[in-house]
Amino acid sequence: MARGTIIPTLQLLLLAVCCATTVVHGKEWTVGDSKGWTFGVSGWERAKRIQSGDVLVFKYNPSMHNVVQVGEGDYNSCKVSGPSRTHTSGNDHIKLAPGGKAFFICSFPGHCQQGMKIAVTA
Ligand SMILES: [Cu+2]
């Protein structure tokens, strides 16, 4: 291998490391990626390194869906019975507070059961 190819490779590596650490602070995640907040979105969050300070962006048609932040029990049962916070703009930006998990469901009848729920560890 020619010596000349080693240095550009190192520069690329350094660039990658630098940018990866920059992104860590306050990254925006569009929930469900291009599909948005919709049926079957559950599980989208699993492979993601979502951290406190990051922002979840929920995109949806507000006449069809909403976003309700709930406790773990309500997340599991798909029923809003405990403390909750409802978002209805259709383009909700929710910053994740440090410590523990955050649970989000759609409270329209049947939607949570059809996979409109995510659990994020921040
Ligand atoms: Cu819904």
From TrEMBL:
It holds the Pfam family Cu_bind_like. SUPFAM superfamilies: Cupredoxins. GO terms for molecular function: electron transfer activity; metal ion binding. Residues 27-122 form the Phytocyanin domain. InterPro entries: BlueCu_1_BS, Cupredoxin, Phytocyanin-like, Phytocyanin_dom, Plantacyanin. It comes from the Eukaryota. GO terms for cellular component: plasma membrane. The keyword Metal-binding applies. The keyword Signal applies. Residues 1-26 form the signal peptide. CDD domains: Plantacyanin (cd11013). Keywords: Copper, Disulfide bond, Metal-binding, Signal. This is Plantacyanin. It comes from Hordeum vulgare subsp. vulgare.
